[in-house]
Amino acid sequence: MKNTLPDSLSLPAPKEIEAAVRGQRELATYLSTRLETQTISIQDAENVSHQIELPTSALMMLMTILGEVAEGNAVQVVPIHAELTTQEAANILNVSRPHLVKLLEEGELKFHKTGRHRRVFFADLMKYKEQRDQQSQKAMQDLSDLSQDMGFY
After folding, report:
1. Which of 73, 84, 94, 97 is nearest to 123 (CA)?
2. pLDDT tens digit string along 103-134?
3. Rounded CA separation 17/13 (Å)
């Protein structure tokens, strides 16, 4: 099964943002991270309650999603084994597609080909992004330390 990103995302409406703020707050109040699963209640259109047992990990993910929506951000859930096009991967890294292709061809980032098209696994992209972010943080810390040593602060 091929997993790719959906083609379109839309920003949440003001009422959705308000509901996300309230929902995240309420969920945080009752969420117990000591349990593997938890039961929540959902009301249907006729106000009939339905009990649903969910993994606590899914509820934690829902809290994160609600936090993003509360800030007005569009959210997308991507399976860890999803295959991304070079444009999708470039968008996630906030770089140009030609720059991403250069990273692929130089071996900086793993990829495979589907026919003539390069594909990047989401998990590999996130691993690369984490390494890049760590290197960037270290470089900023080194610059900060150097400027302090030289008395620029």
Report:
1. 84
2. 999 999 999 999 999 999 999 999 999 999 99
3. 6
**Phi, then psi, of 81 in degrees rounded to 5:** -95, 15
**83-149, CATH topology level:** Multidrug-efflux Transporter Regulator; Chain: A; Domain 2 (1.10.1660)
Residues 6+ apart with CB under 8 A from 63: 24, 27, 28, 31
Largest Cα separation within the chain, whole Å, is: 70
Domain boundaries, the chain: 14-70, 83-149
Q: How confident is the model at residue 90 (pLDDT cuts 50, 70, 90)?
A: very high
Exposure on the CB side of residue 28, measured as CA atoms within 13 A? 11
What type of residue sits at position 103?
L
Between the CA atoms of 93, 120, 83 and 116, what dihedral angle is there, to the nearest 10 degrees? 130
Strand partners, 37: 55
Nearest of 15, 92, 146, 114 to residue 103 by alpha carbon = 92
- The alpha-carbon radius of gyration of the chain (Å, integer) is 21
